[in-house]
Amino acid sequence: MSSEPLAKGYEPTEVEDRWYSFWQEAGLFAARENSHAPAYSIVIPPPNVTGVLHMGHALNITLQDILCRYRKLKGDNVLWMPGTDHAGIATQNVVEKQLAAEGMDRHRLGREKFIEKVWQWRRQYGSAIINQLKRLGAMCDWDRERFTMDEGLSKAVRKVFVTLYQEGLIYQGDYIINWCPRCHTALADLEVEHEEQDGHLYHVLYPFAEGKGGLIVATTRPETMLGDTAVAVNPEDERYRSIEHSHVILPLMNRKIPIIRDDYVDVTFGTGALKVTPAHDPNDFDIGRRHGLDSPKVIGDDGRMSEAAGRFAGLERFECRKVVVAELQKEGLLKKTEDLKHNVGHCYRCKTVVEPNLSRQWFVSAKPLADEAIAAVEEGRTRIIPEMWSKTYYDWMYNIRDWCISRQIWWGHQIPAWTCSACGEIVVEMDAPERCPACGSEDLVQETDVLDTWFSSALWPFSTMGWPERTKLLDRFYPTSVLVTGFDILFFWVARMMMMGIHFMKDVPFRDVYVHALVRDEDGKKMSKSKGNVIDPLSVIEQYGTDAFRYTLAAFAAQGRDVKMSEKRVEGYRHFVNKLWNAARFSLMHLEQGADGVDRSRIATEDRWILSRLSRVTREVTEALEGYRFNDAASELYQFIWHEFCDWYLEVIKPALYGKSSDRDAGATRAVLWTVLKNILLTLHPFMPFVTEEIWHKLPGTEGSIMTATFPEALDTASGVVPDEEAEAQMALLTAVITGIRNIRGEMNLPPSLQLTAEVQSPDAPERQTIEAHRAIIADMARLKNFTVGSPGEKPKAAATAVVDSCAIYVSLEGVIDFDKERQRLEKELGKLAAELKSVSKKLNNEDFLEKAPPAVVEKSRERQEALNERQQKLTANLERLREMQE
RNA sequence: AGGCGCGUAGCUCAGGGGGAGAGCGCUACCCUGACACGGUAGAGGUCCUGGGUUCAAAUCCCAGCGCGCCUACCA
Fold first, then answer.
1. Tens digit of pLDDT for each residue in A824-877?
2. Is A77 a domain residue?
3. What CA–CA distances, in Å, run from A492 to A93, A98, A543, A560, A585?
């Protein structure tokens, strides 16, 4: 508890490092397994090990940290479970690139050695993102950090796989999947990004097998025709109903293929004749199945044409497209080429054009799992916030399709399935079986595919807590309190966690899902490296400090809207941090000896006022945080601290603190100042952990870390924190009078150094009393040398006028009189009044309004009209007087 | 093709059936013993357009325009 004065400006860097280490070393982030305090838990959306911190993480982490710090101050036993995921494809790509640079490749290295390389990479670089999260101040329980490839989590993965397989919810089969020829693996439907591109629609004539003529088919991917096994037309299509031919000749391949009839074909598209390539198109695959067609694969897994493509074998697929088109043209079979915008799927990891490919893969049968997950949200066992996202959730869940979970890469959880070389039996078990249960052979070969990373991420809420063991952590902290995440992984991750959590834990994985926005650049564009519009959070932190950055993110995090990041705004909040710092600096100068408790019988109006405001703001901030309205909480505090605490309270109490005010009890005021500052620090701490901790330690009468203190109550009689309407009303009058006088000073261009003479006349005795009792404050704040209060009487001669409630305020212009200027000022003011009066009067002259509007609303309008009238009348009178004097 | 969201001050955005708000920027004045990362005062808006509901619409409903996003097996 040192009391050396604070530096003139706040310098974040040193403070942040110091306190973060302090917190960690003091074990303040640790969840307590044996505590009986209410449990509050969050699992972090695990960033990729390959990742670097971006704005999305920053927002995501900041919001979670605000919640955790808030709950901790509220006395909860907080567990914030951190970790990373192994990002199968992404990580493998990174390490492969590294190998390539060394003139190596993974195939020459071999699977085992390659995986060892990945682990090496992980050990060397894998904690980069974790260290970056720490820069944000995240109070994760780092001792519990998990990785989706950890032994424990790996066990959970195998357990889930085996169980689902036994339940018939995982199966293996030959289907069309999305294939990335570059990553050389299957992808789930979700992992394909569709992008509209300019392409061509080629119209190709397929001649009838006998006789003249043929069918014209339209295609955007002519190279796939090499694998065509039929041409389909709609049975209802008049154009083709009567054709007698049963077959066409597949051009270039010279293969006879049937003409089939299938409802699927859209008569309005192209020519109404559809080439059918069962091995390279999901719809064609279905048609092929319905009609028992062959499905030759003409595009290989490397993106080159396969043997089945005949003389085109070996050509790269897009090269082949050109060659096919050229040859068709040469043979006169290319009848037309149209421009066409169409959606093309790209690999979400490497952006390569995805190839639909027939392949044997493992799938999760999603429907039964989805049904439970839908019910959980419908029944409110899990709340999605903002509510509108539940619609998106339902929509996807209701239309869910089976999930392809096998990946043809090496880095990941190898699928725990073995094939018996002797009898072909498939054995699915947690651990490698010794012999085939069917034939007893010991020659078992493990499936080489690994599982989708999202498969292990789906288990995150319980696998991180030790499942499948029954642990204390699970007992205490599952289900988690809330999941905080961006909507971009609502399906990838949230939906799947819901399915797995409910299925395996028999309870939802989280009570709440708070879905936040994406961070975009200043123009609302998605930040991406290729666009070059990324703002690096770390550079923002270095420039403005973590607290300012966090506050910006919180203030921007309005529900249902994207965050457009602007450094200008961060700068604004850096000023706010500095403002707080200086308010504290000032306060601490007067709080050297600490403070006694607040004695409400000894305190003044402004003390009661600030305590009242504190009470209300505390309530509003609390409610906002409970409702995930971070921006409301942030702006409420900003407004209160800057414009009420600093602008008014600190200014008003200065005379008392400096001992210039004889009628004030400085000790009582100091006690209030201490209370308000302390509560401000605590309320602000979840948003600005560093600066609040720093000031906390300078504030006399505090002990230990602010993290171990208690969040203020909105109603705290012992500390004098209670709403006080009388004080608020009086303060409103005083500030209005002061502002009125300042306004005259400003508008009349009277220099601040000029001490003015002013007089207030009011017919209202209580108003007079209030003003009279606070004459010193008004005189001080408005810089007056003479200030008198009285009943309406003779009006001062050369004076400017302002009206507040029933008060007429006259500011003497003796010696500095500028009639024209004052006249203009009054005319402007009267102009505004007239407009307002007009709209109120219009309402009050409307009988329907008087009849149908709620009485309270009518009454309010009446009062307003009266007040406006009074103002208008007083100002007009003064304007008249001014004119008379000028004549 | 469907679905969702957005359109409010010069910029970035809150708000939301009954007197148009904030931050930044701008103008004027001021280094007043916490703070120029500051203070005081001020200017600035047909709340996208057109209908409808209502005593009352920036706010609710419908349509349109513009923008963004998500989902989708029309080759």
1. 888 888 888 888 888 888 889 889 999 999 999 999 999 989 989 988 988 888
2. no
3. 20, 28, 34, 20, 49
Section A810-835 average pLDDT:
84
Residue A834 beta carbon within 7 A of nucleic strand B: no
Highest mean pLDDT among A234-248, A511-525, A554-568, A813-827: A234-248
Residue with tokens 């100002």: A875
Is the domain of A687 the same as that of A789?
A: no
Q: Is residue A414 part of a domain?
A: no
- Average pLDDT value for residue range A400-428: 93
Cα–Cα distance between A885 and A887 in angstroms, integer? Answer: 5
Between residue 273 and residue 302 of chain A, the positions with Cβ below 7 Å from nucleic chain B are 273-275, 281-283
Across the range A878-886, mean pLDDT stands at 81
**Spatial distance between the Cα atoms of A424 and A444, rounded to a whole number of angstroms:** 9
DSSP letter assigned to residue A38: P
The answer to whether residues A716 and A766 belong to one domain is no
Shared-domain flag, residues A194 and A309: yes
Output the pTM of the full model: 0.92
A852 touches strand B (CB under 7 A): yes
Strand B near-CB residues (< 7 Å), A 32-51: none
Distance A755 CA to B41 C1' (A): 16
Query: Domain range for residue A633?
Result: 566-723
CATH at residue A618: 1.10.730.10
Between A558 and A468, the higher pLDDT residue = A468
Residue A392: inside a domain, yes or no? no
Same domain, A225 and A285: yes
Boundary (domain end) residue, out of A356, A373, A406: A356
The number of domains in chain A is: 3
Distances (CA, A) of A312 to A236, A276, A354: 36, 19, 20
Model confidence over A654-708: pLDDT tens digits?
Answer: 998 888 776 677 888 999 999 999 999 999 999 999 999 999 999 998 989 999 9
A618 shares its domain with A579: yes
Are A646 and A778 part of one and the same domain?
A: no
Taking residue A332's Cβ as centre, other Cβ atoms within 10 Å add up to 8
- Assess if residue A735 is contained within a domain: no
**Angle A386-A392-A393 (CA atoms, 0-180°, nearest 5)?**
90
Domain boundary among A356, A386, A410: A356
User: Which nucleotides along chain B are within 7 A of a protein C-beta?
Assistant: 3-6, 12-15, 18-19, 22-24, 28-30, 32-43, 54-56, 67-75
Q: Which residues pair with A304 in a beta bridge?
A: A316
Looking at the structure, tell me whether residues A718 and A764 fall in a common domain.
Answer: no
A73-93 tens-digit pLDDT: 999 999 999 999 998 888 998
Q: What is the DSSP string of A590-609?
A: T-TT------TTT--HHHHH
Between CA A730 and CA A712 the distance in angstroms is: 26
